[in-house]
Amino acid sequence: MIDLDRGITAGQAIDMLFGIKLSKHRGLKDKVSSLMRNGLVDYKAQLVVDRSSNRVYHDQYTTLHNAVLIQALLTDPKKVKQVFDDDKYRHEIAGVFNGLLLERRSIVGISLIKPEVLRFLDALSSDCNLREEKLANPFETLPQIIFGTSVDLLQTVLAQNVSQESGDAMMAHYLNGDLQEAVDASAKISSSNPYLQQLTNHIQREYRNACEFENLLDFLE
Q: Is residue 176 in some structural domain?
């Protein structure tokens, strides 16, 4: 029997939150560990039967739940933490997630649950406290389970022969932090979708600002 007052292991927490045995999925286990190492999910080390065990407490369950869902699409743990800490960045990422998930039944073979997709996107786009309010799970199966350790969802999106006009490649490159690739992909989009045009303009503006900053640094050297 689990004593919640003494905290539980990350594996027990994931089992409770998602019904998944963490020990059977190395890819997910590694990603959860990265969320704990970077300080997003607080834990305490306890000595259990002569071994140190990292324990997660009740006040961290919602943070862990939401971080795992966000990390399904935004694989860099530093960026996942930034979503929690930076409201402007959070809303930018929510917009990109909107482009990847909305009006789809699946993404790279992973079935999406439409009502939960809408709830997930609405909450992420709002100002709700991600440490206190659970996001809906839009995935029938977590991408971290499907792809394991070798690849992730964004890499799979880019590896497929995606339509350039759909903007998938641009959004995947942007989430991966490849701003140059995202800009190159944005130049190939010919869509009248106002949301996609807005996102394209945002990426191109961010790229111009980055170039101007780099030029300034070169000038000061």
A: no
